[in-house]
Predict the structure.
Amino acid sequence: MTKKILILSGSPKKNGNTAALVEWFMEGAGSRGAKIELIHAAFLQYKFPGCTSCRLCQKQKAYECVIEDDANLALRKMAAADVIVMATPLYFFAASAQLKVLIDRMFSLYKWDNAAGTMRTVLKGKTLLLLASAFEDAGMDALEKPFVLTADYSGMEYGSLLVSNAGESGDIRKRSDIHEKAVAFGKKFA
Ligand SMILES: Cc1cc2nc3c(=O)[nH]c(=O)nc-3n(C[C@H](O)[C@H](O)[C@H](O)COP(=O)(O)O)c2cc1C
C-alpha cells in the first residue's frame, strides 16, 4: 500500500540544514513510491500563535481545531497521514518555536474523557519521525524527549535521525555520509 507521508518542517531557512535533511528523506521515501507532502510550518498563517486552551475541540466529534486557519489544514493532513515527519533545527536545546506552535494545536487530535480516565487519538497506529540538526554536540536528548513521549502516549511508532555538529545553515549539504543516512531513513519508513 502506498504510504502517505506528511512532513512538517519547522525551520525558517528554506535552503538550510533542516531543508537538506527533508530533501534527502524525500529522495529516499519518494524512491519507494510514497506519497509525500511538505508543509513549511514556519510560513503558516495563524489566527492565534499556539493553542488557546479553549477546549472546544473536546466538545465536538471531529478531530480538528475550532480555529479555522493554516494550522487546521495541517492538522487535517496529519489525521490522514500514515507517517508524520517533524523536522527542526535545535533552538536552545529544543524544537523551533515555529514547529512547537503547530504541535500545541495537536491538542485537537485527541479526545480525553477525564471522568472515565480514557484518551482516544487519530494519531494511534501512525508513525512519528523526527529529523533534526544542531550546530554543537549537546542537547539532542532534550530535543528528542517530548517526541518520544508523545509517540509513546499516542500509540505511534517512533524513529529519528538527529545530526549533531551539523554546522551553520547549509553546511550539512557537504556531508555525503548524512545524505546517505537520510535517504536510507526515508526508504525505511516509506
Ligand atoms: C535561534 C537559534 C538557536 C540555536 N540554538 C542552538 C542550540 O541550542 N544548540 C546548537 O547546537 N545549535 C543551535 N543553533 C544552531 C542550529 O541548530 C543549527 O545550525 C541548525 O543545523 C540550523 O538548521 P537550519 O539551517 O534548518 O536553520 C541555533 C540556531 C539559531 C538560529
